[in-house]
Design brief:
Four copies of one chain form a homotetramer. Chain A has eight helices and six strands; from the N terminus they run E-H-H-H-E-H-E-H-E-H-E-H-E-H.
C-alpha cells in the first residue's frame, strides 16, 4: 500500500448517491441492498471516510442521481433499462424523504454538489468535471452506491476523463456479492489505481492533516 | 425477441477494436482471448453480423483504441491501470501488423472510422458521438472486443449519451468466462436494451433488406 | 429563403435565458439591453416564435444560465471574466424575481428545461445535448439572450456537436449594435445555416401545422 | 499587466492551426488572411511566443483542424456553413503541402498534438481536454488562426471547460479588421482573463526561466 499518497490541493472525496432510498431503513431500494451493505458496514465506513476527509481538509464533492419527477421520461424516444427501472420505481422521488441525502452525509458549506445525473455516471451530462477542474482536482477517492452501476460508471468516466481514482471497497454496496465482485474485482481495477479498505484510506488521509 | 426492430436510417453497426493484436493468431493479446473467443466463435459471428449489416444497408462505424506510439505516456502525470498495461505491452503498435484491423473487418468506402480512443470507451475524447449525430443515428448494434473493457465502456457511454443499444453476446470475447459474465450478464443489461445472439440479430437485420 | 424547411419530429425551439433580469423592466441587466431590445422588439418576437412553435407542435427546450447562489465562486481557482461579472452582479439570483423566467416564457408541461449552465453555452456541462437526443432532435431554432454571449456560445456549441441551427435575428438582443453585428453578421453565419427574421420563421413554422 | 503570472507546471502554450494553407505564401487561404496577418506580423509573433515558451519550459500543445480527405462530408445529413466551406475548398487537404504545419511550428518531441477537430473548437470531439488534464494544465496561452473562428471557438470552449486563458492579440489573424475586432475586442475578453501583446507575454514567460 506504499502508493496511497495524496496531495491535499489536488485530491477530493467523491460521495455517490447517499440517498435515503438506497441506504436508510425504509428506503425504496434498501431491502435489496441491505444484505451486502450490512455485511461490509457500508454506511459506517462511508461516514468514517467522509469524516477523515473533512478533518484532513480534503474537498468533498457529491455526485447525485436525478431525483424522479413526473414527466421525466414520458416524452423520451430512447430509454435505457436502468432508466426504465428508475421510472417505474420513482427512485429518489423529488420532495420525498427517499430523495433526500441520508443525514450523516449532508453536504456542508463549501462542499460541492454536482448537477444530478440521468443514468449512472456522475460525470455524464453534468458539471462534475467542470467543478473538479475549477478546484484544481486531479485525484478522486470514491465512496457510495451502487458499486456495479453508479460507482463503476463514475470510476470508468473519471479514468476516461483523466482523473486518478481510488475506490474504497467496503464503503460501497450492491444487491449481491456477484455484482460486488464484478465491479470491485473484475472491472474497477482496470480504471482505479487503487482499490482499498476504509482502514487503509483513513490512515493515508489522516497523515495529510 | 419481439422487440428487435430497427429502422434503417437511424440504426448503425458499431465494430469495436477488431485489431490483429486481439483476434488474429499471432496477435499480442490473442493467446489470452483465444479460449473464450474460439468457444463462442467470436470472429465468425462478428463477420456474420458485419456482412448482414452491410447487406441490409445499415451504416457501419468503427471505434478503435489508440495505436501505441513511442512517447504516448511518458509525460502523463496520471495513467490508469489499463493504460499502463497498454503502454508496457505496446498493444496495437502503430505501423505494425498487430495495430492493423483484421482483414475481414476492413472498413469499406462510406463506412466511418472514429478517432482513436485512449482508454476504453469509443466515445470518450473522440468524434464518435459527432459522427453518429451527423448521420442521424440513434440505435447501435455493438460487436467486438473486449467484452468487459472496451465493449462495456462503450455501451455504458452510449447509454449515458442517449443511444439505444443492442449487444451481440457471441460476437465478443474476454480473457475469462468470469469477465464475460460480469460484462454480459451483470452490467451491460442495465444499459443495453437487448443482449442477443448472432442468429437473432442477423434474422432481425435481414428483414430490413 | 427556400431552404427554411423543418421536419416536425427532428426540429425544436431552443429558448435561451428569458430571465426577468435580462428582459423585464426592473431587471438587473435590462437597462443595458433595453436600447437594442426595444429597437428590434426582441420580447414580442420571442413570444411570436414561441407561440407559433407551440401551435405547430414543435418541441420546446430551455437553456438557462446558472442562478446565482452564495458560495458559487468563492472556492474556484479559475474564474472567467464573464463569471466574475455574474458573481459581482449576482445576476439571476436564486429565489428572487430577477432569477425567474419572464411570464410569457414560462415552460409548459411537456417542455424541457435543461440544467443550468455556468458560463455561456447552454450545452457545456449540462444535459441539453442528452435531452435533445432523447427526443430525436437534430435541428434547432434559437431565440433569446444575449446575442454575443449565451446565444452565440450555444449556437457555436450546437454546430460543434452536430446540430443544424437557425437563429432568429430579431428575437435576440445585446448591449450594443456593435455586439449584435459581431454575433449576427460576423460569427454566427459560420455556424448557423440560417439567420432569419421572426416573420420568416413564423411563416415557415406555420406551414408545419 | 501585473496579473500576467504563470506557474510553469500548470500553464501551457496552445498553438492553433499553423497550417501552410493559412499562413504560408501559396496557401489556399493565405490571400484572404495576408492583409491582416502581415499588418500585425502574425507569423513572426507566433514564432516568438513559441520560442520563448519552449525556452521557459512550458509544455506546448497543438489544436489542428481536420485535414480534408475525400468522403468526409458526402454522407453527413447536417453540415454547418463553415464545414461546407472547408469541403468545397478542400482546406488542409491530407497529403498536400497546404495540409502540413508551417516549418517554424513543427511539433518537437514531447509536445502534444491533439486529435483533429471537425468544426472550429480544438476541444470539441477531440482529446485536447484529456491531454491537458493528463499533464496537469489549467492555464492556456493561445496563439494561431483564425481569430474569429477557431481561436475564438477554442477560447470559448476553454473557458466553458474551466481553463484560464490568455490570448495574444498580435499572434493571430482574420480576413478583416472587423473580424479581428469582433473576436479580440467584443467577444474574447468575456472568456479570456487576459488579451495581451507578444511583447507582454514574452516578457512574462521569460521570467519563468
Amino acid at each position: 500500500m506504499s502508493k496511497l499518497t495524496y496531495e491535499k490541493d489536488i485530491t477530493a472525496l467523491l460521495v455517490i448517491d447517499p440517498y435515503n432510498d438506497f441506504i436508510s431503513e425504509g428506503g425504496k431500494v434498501w431491502d435489496r441492498l441491505k444484505g451486502v451493505a450490512e455485511a461490509n458496514q457500508c454506511v459506517l465506513h462511508m461516514s468514517q471516510v467522509l469524516e477523515s476527509s473533512r478533518k484532513a481538509g480534503l474537498r468533498v464533492f457529491y455526485a447525485l442521481h436525478h431525483r424522479y419527477r413526473p414527466g421525466d421520461y414520458e416524452t423520451w424516444k430512447y430509454v435505457a433499462p436502468i432508466q426504465k427501472a428508475a421510472w417505474s420505481r420513482k427512485t429518489f422521488e423529488y420532495g420525498t424523504w427517499g430523495g433526500e441525502i441520508r443525514h450523516e452525509f449532508q453536504p456542508q458549506p463549501g462542499e460541492i454538489v454536482a448537477q444530478e445525473h440521468w443514468c449512472s455516471s456522475g460525470f455524464a451530462n453534468t458539471d462534475l468535471d467542470l467543478q473538479l477542474k475549477k478546484h484544481g482536482i486531479h485525484k478522486l477517492i470514491v465512496i457510495g452506491l451502487i458499486a456495479h452501476t453508479c460507482v463503476e460508471a463514475t470510476v470508468r468516466y473519471a479514468a476516461e476523463l483523466g482523473y486518478e481514482v481510488t475506490v474504497i471497497r467496503d464503503a460501497t454496496a450492491s444487491y449481491s456479492d456477484e455484482q460486488m465482485h464484478a465491479a470491485l474485482d473484475v472491472n474497477i481495477p482496470n480504471y482505479a489505481g487503487s482499490v482499498v479498505t476504509t482502514v487503509e484510506i483513513v490512515e493515508s488521509i489522516s497523515s495529510l492533516t
